[in-house]
Amino acid sequence: MHFKHYTNEDKGMRNVKVGLVQMSCTANKQENLDKAIFKVREAAEKGAQIVCLQELFTSLYFCDVEDYDNFALAESIPGPSTDALSDVAKELGVVIIASLFEKRTEGLYHNTTAILDADGSYLGKYRKMHIPDDPAFYEKFYFTPGDLGYKVFQTKFGKIGVLICWDQWYPEASRITALMGAEILFYPTAIGWATDQDEETNKDQYNAWQTIQRSHAVANGVPVVSVNRVGFEQDGAMKFWGGSFVANGQGKLLYLASHDKEETEVIELDLNQADYFRKHWPFLRDRRIETYAPITKRFIDED
């Protein structure tokens, strides 16, 4: 397959600067929100136009236990956190991607990401579709699966698609979001290692996590921005592995964060690359959509 290198001459003028905030959290909700706002300001000072915060950034990752008291962390969306972030977005002229614990009504809760445009307007929300239930990740106790479908948001700086953490493992989710016109896929996430695991297992798990997301970039020809938390939580039993990254539409790593440090980084993306990559590697064009009906089955067998 012929594929010439993407050169400066091929580049268009649709560049956007994305900011990633990788941070640790405490048990104090207001403290975490204030810290996130400080880091959004830091990203904006570096030129960021779209800033993505990590999954559930206003709290510790509370899903390690099934505790009814943790429902008190939830809030309405729009609500207090989006109001505060809306003011910041308007002041700085940046888009903010904010992952929050949503209380929809009495007894109904979601893992939700709100999108605030650069003028401070609330563009809408995406509710996490895939909900895990693993040791130390008991999310089905707290979160109802999303019912808004996959979503894209037309922001001042481009059309973005937002998915959340466990959605990362599903090519169907990224494909549908890309087919809806997403120019960048964002993944706020919270994932880590059990501290009693061996280093080889840690490495294998992280590599699998990064590889599947970079494959979404390649399959769809669009950049992927994945933002994870860092720090020890769960009384030291969990080390959130950081490793936030940005990959272009060919899967090339443009930025890779550390596993143990807070980082605020800004990366410039060329949105015109999607057309270039899709012309040279026409994976979207060559899809045999008439053969894909069986994908809606749980498993393909005779029963």
TrEMBL record:
Q: Name one Pfam family in it.
A: CN_hydrolase
The CN hydrolase domain sits at 16-271
Q: Which GO terms describe its molecular function?
A: acyltransferase activity
Taxonomically, the superkingdom here is Bacteria
Q: Which UniProt keywords apply?
A: Acyltransferase, Hydrolase, Transferase
What is the recorded name of this protein?
A: Apolipoprotein acyltransferase
| Source organism per UniProt | Sphingobacterium griseoflavum
